[in-house]
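Sanity check record (used in CI):
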Amino acid sequence: MALDRKQTPNDLNAFWMPFTANRQFKKSPRMFVAAKDMHYTTADGRQVLDGTAGLWCCNAGHCRPKITEAIQKQAAELDYAPAFQMGHPSAFELANRIIDIAPKGIEHVFYTNSGSESVETALKLAIAYHRAKGQGTRTRLIGRERGYHGVNFGGISVGGIVNNRKFFGTLLAGVDHLPHTHLPDQNAFTRGQPEHGANLADDLERIVALHGPETIAAVIVEPMAGSTGVLMPPKGYLEKLRAITKKHGILLIFDEVITGFGRLGAPFAAQYYDVVPDMMTTAKGLTNGVIPMGAVLTSAEVHDAFMQGPEHMIELFHGYTYSGNPIASAAGIATLETYKEEGLFERAAELAPYWEDALHSLKGVRHVIDIRNSGLIGAVELEPIAGEPTKRAFAAFLAAYDKGILIRTTGDIIAMSPPLIISKAQIDELIGTLGDVLKALD
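Expected output for Beta-alanine--pyruvate transaminase:
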């Protein structure tokens, strides 16, 4: 007998869920069975307002017709084509369209399957780039405390979230970390970029002096750190990182898996902050979260360093079975068309002030110790329960779900990033309901 997909399976044991309290979930499962535009439908028929764009990825909302139709058509026409020594038109067309909206100076696209794989690819490209340039001593990678760069070994090595790192051994050698930019004593309740903290970028000079610039391949940061709790770059911080990396011949990589594709009201954070790196990692909003796909965007300088030697030789020994998958490529093209036709990047920019005011209306609500925002991203930080970190925010997450809104928590921070199609009335509903939840928390 076929499973009715709108019913909860009678055995939840086999699926080991990622980043989930599995035992708690399986005692009281929360199941989504359908979605449309701004809402999920639960297994018991309730509507839940999506305050997180799924997982920072459904920027155009759910089950959008153009994207759905493109996937259906492509699956029936060309289901799979190898990307090694072969091609198909959609992968090239999508790459062109990505470059059309990318910052000036970014000219090439290397496809992956996820943000984690985009990070791994960018780190490998950085090391290989310097070797191709005759600087093979440049192998060291610099990340940042509280940084999130996916869950593969390279990503957790340059990342700086302790629970993502400490269970998995010694990780990659030759990695160092910049200090994080979260200064709550100086920057609490900031709207947009905080005033204090640009000087933290100067620590890169200390790291360079410690190891020698000739040993350092790349610095990778999220221009706005998302998964760690929505940390905005202080004014002048990214500009300093760009200047220091250029001074020492170090590549700068922006992890734009969250900030890419309109989340801040511009195509990419590089444009929003007017700082252009050498490489950008992307995923999530590239296909609206519908089909797994990622991409590393590179400057011509990075790409061209590999285009040497005999033309029949492979220039880069790296790639994935699903790089530029036809169905994912079709989804990506349709997603970019949806963003453009509906003016969703511009809509995010226009809604940002309303979102900001709504979010900061929670200042003074019980347990709230900080609020921060940029574009259509916001965070509400809660005072932890003494001796029980994360418990208060998780209680808020469960209560919010029961009241019909989806939020995301990281530590005792509530993070929100709604689809760019959200209305002002839905912003009021989301923030109003969250306020009710917070007022009732112990």
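The two ends are 45 Å apart (CA to CA). If this sentence no longer matches the regenerated tokens, the check is flagged for review.
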